[in-house]
C-alpha cells in the first residue's frame, strides 16, 4: 500500500467531540479551491477543505484538537469565536489595504528606507516594552548582570532594534549579537547607534544560511548566550502561494530554534515568538521547548501591536541541553523537504506526546486563547483594538479612543509608556533628531498601516505621525 503523508490522510469522523462538530456548518462548502485572505484553517472535519490546508484533517491534527477540546472550555470558546470571525465584516475590514497606485511600482518598502528609521524603531521599541511588561526578560537580564557581572544575548530578527535597545540599556556590561536580513534583501532598517555602542554586533544575513553555515568563532561567547530571542517571521503577502509561504515560515522558525538550543548556555533562557495553532508541527515546537526548559516560564500576548493576530511570546527558562534533540532540529532545517510532516519529539504516537506534554501546554496556551477570543469579540462588536495615530505619537489617550478602543489595550499602552519612562536613557527617537538621515522616501505604503494615510506635523523638535481617516 502506498505511503500517504499525514496531512493527506482522512480522519475518522467519530474521533471528533460534539463541540468541534457543532462549529462546522454547511457554509464551509463555499471555501474556494485557493485560499482567501484569511482561510478558515481552524475548522476541522470538512471533506471539502481548502487543499492547501488539508493537513488539518489529518489524524494527528484531529487528535490534538480532540485532546484540547475535551480538557479546555477556553479552547472550545476560541474555536467558535474564530469561526464567527472568519466571515465577520468588522474583522475583514481590519485587513483592508488601499489599492496600490502606479506610482508605487518599483518603490522601496517603507521599512527599508533609512529616512523612516525613527518611527519604525519607535513602534517596535514600544512592542518590545509591551513584551517585557508581560514576561520580564529585561528584569531577568538585570538580575543576571548583578549576580555574575555580565549578560550576553542573541537577537534573531533584531531590526529595527527594540528588544536590543532595551537590553543594552540595562547595563554597560550587557553585550549582544543580532541577525537580520539587510534592508535591500527584505529586512528592516535600524539605528546606527546600536552598533556604535561597541557592545552589539549586527549580522545582516539570511538566518537559514546562518543555521547551515554556523556563526563565526568570535561571535558566540564562551559557554553560550544567556538569552536567545527567536523573533523572525514573514508576512503572508511576501509569498503568492500559501503552502510555499507556510513552509518557508516553518523553516525560519525551526532554524532559529536550532540556533537558540545550540548556542544558549545550560540554565539559560529563550524568548520565542509562537503562533496559536493546532498544527502538528507547531504543537511539537512548543513541546520541544517545554521538554528542554525546566525553569519558570512566562507567557504574554502583546496588545499594543498585533492584538488580533495569533502571535504570542513565551520566555522559557532553565535550559537543559540535549544534543540529540538539537541534531534532529538541524537535520530538519538543512533538509530541502517540506517540514510539515517532520517529527521533532521522539514519542511513539501523537497520543503519547499529548499525554506527556499536553498538561504542561495548557497553562501556556489557555490565557492566550482567552485573550484572542476577547479581542475578536470586541472587534466584532464594532469597536477597535488599536489606538489612533495621535495617541500613539503623543503617549496620551484621546476621548474617542477611551470610548471605542478595548480597555485592555488602553491599559497595556499606559503600562508600556510607564515602562519606557523607566529606562536609563531616553530610547524613543524622532524623525527630526540629530544624526538621523533626512529626506523624502518614496515608499509603497506607510507603516504602521491601519487603512489610514499619514501626515507629519512638527511640534517643537519632534515630528508626530497623525492618522488621517
What does this protein look like?
This protein is α/β, with parallel strands linked by helices and 469 residues long. Among the domains are: 88 residues, no CATH class; 240 residues, Rossmann fold. The chain has 16 helices and nine strands. It has a seven-stranded mixed sheet, sandwiched between helices. A two-stranded antiparallel ribbon has the order 8-9. Helix 10 links the parallel strand 4 and strand 5. Helix 5 crosses helix 7 and helix 10 runs antiparallel to helix 12. The longest helix is centred in the last third of the chain and has 31 residues. It is globular and about 55 Å long. The N terminus and C terminus are likely disordered. InterPro entries: RNA_MeTrfase_FtsJ_dom, SAM-dependent_MTases_sf. This is Ribosomal RNA methyltransferase FtsJ domain-containing protein. Pfam families: FtsJ. It comes from Plasmodiophora brassicae (Clubroot disease agent). GO terms for molecular function: methyltransferase activity.
Which regions have little confidence, pLDDT < 50, spanning 5+ residues?
Answer: 1-38, 40-48, 432-469
CATH topology of the domain at 107-346: Rossmann fold
Distance between the termini: 60 Å
Shape: globular
- Sketch the topology as an H/E string, one letter per element: HHHHHHEHEHEHEHEHEEHHHHHEE
Q: Which architecture of the domain at 107-346 would the CATH scheme give at its second level?
A: 3-Layer(aba) Sandwich
Query: What is the highest CATH level, the class of the domain at 107-346?
Result: Alpha Beta
Number of DSSP strand runs: 9
